[in-house]
Amino acid sequence: TFDSSTNTDIPCIFANNVLPDWLESSITKTINYYRVTPINGGLEYGQLSYSVSCRANNSPDAETIQEAVFDALNRQQSSTDGFFICTALPVIPPADSTDNYNAPVEVQIKTR
């Protein structure tokens, strides 16, 4: 269980394109990710793309999370004999008062 009162600087991480309903409103930094490409069995190599949403209640914090994700994954070896290639995308402002800033990272995973 995540305790936001003691872990305010650590983003919650979710493997889904939508944040869960139970998420506390006091948690302002989150990372959620999901696959955005189909699996193509006809290729001689594997290539998947994931979208990683780095969210915060202000643009600088979202960009800080984005930079950490990018630095942690870009050009790293995967556990499936491949590697990651990352692209940091521009910050997306909140759509309304219930939303927050999103600094997306596109992660391509290429395998042999």
List keywords for this structure.
112 residues, alpha+beta, STM4215-like, six-stranded mixed sheet, 1 helix, 6 strands, 13% helix, 32% strand, elongated, disordered N terminus
Instruction: Give the helix proportion (percent range).
Output: 10-25%
Q: Describe the largest sheet.
A: 6 strands, mixed
The stretches of 5 or more residues where confidence is low (pLDDT under 50) are 1-5
What CATH calls the topology is STM4215-like
CATH superfamily: Phage tail protein-like
Distance between the termini: 37 Å
Report the total helices. Answer: 1
Name of the CATH architecture: 2-Layer Sandwich
Strand content: 25-35%
Average pLDDT over all residues: 82
**Shape, principal axes of CA atoms:** elongated
